[in-house]
Amino acid sequence: MADSRTYVSAAAFIAGDWGTTNSRLFLCDATGDQIDSVVGPGARQAHGDYVSVYDALTSGWTRDHGVLPAILCGMVGSSIGWKQTQYVPCPATAEQISSQCVELRDGQIRIVPGLSCRNRFGAPDLMRGEETQVMGLLRLTPELRVGRHLVCAPGTHTKWIVIEAGSIREILTAPTGELFALIRDHSVLVESKAQANAKSAHAAFKRGVAEVARYPHVQLLHRVFECRSRPLMNDLAPEESASYLSGLLIASDVRGALEVFTDVDTPVVHLIGSNELRDAYADALASAGRYMRGIDGLSAALAGLVYLRQLVEQR
Questions:
Q1: CATH classification of 176-296 is 3.40.190.290, yes or no?
Q2: What is the pLDDT of residue 265?
Q3: Which of 147, 183, 241, 269 has the most C-beta neighbours closer than 10 Å?
Q4: Helix (H) or strand (E) run with residue 16 in it
Q5: pLDDT confidence of residue 102
């Protein structure tokens, strides 16, 4: 283990992924390797007082290492964030994203901008935070800087992202996680609030995925009532209906995106997110004949923040 003098000299900057529900800050050395980390409230819980929250989260590091530069991504740059950044239009490279970082505290803190595009339906589409994860994916997997690839960042608002020649070309958002939460918590479709055990929950999820594969051209609206009708007719345990709903939603999300991005002719979809979400989307992708290559969302975010900071420092 390094002694305290080595530890003190190693600390170089702070990298942070500040989302809606929580924030994760990393203390990094000059090469971008993680020394320490801390978890704090998200944009929703900060209530606009980002200065106090940030200073409280980093007070120990400041005490030990002095004031450090920082680079932050995510909702911290949104309309409810510390300082709103403009959206960089797609296609966007890492160099273009890094050049649009917004500075706070006389340049001590930089906030990464989000991205925008007109999606394939002609509607505006946006993302904040996922662009940094994609930059991390490109840093950790440099072979993806060549050719055309499809990336999925599942979550409350799932992002489908096309990357080509190392740039983010376009975005398509599906509010899959939000719809799941709304239907599960605020509708009569999922009556039981009890949780199934892991084995039966997974089986119900897989059943939902299989039903979408069985009838791939049936609209989702014509299926979700089954979350109520099947338990009422003893065709599904009441506590399994939420998992069945999740299977329907995620499989519909996957198949819809694959039908949109037919020109991204690759059998592999790159998934960025937690293990649980990656596994769920992997099941749905497999039912559609695609394979998953996954990376942890926080690892991707940290790698992206390090990469973008390096580009900023080189300017």
A1: no
A2: 84
A3: 241
A4: strand 11-18
A5: 96
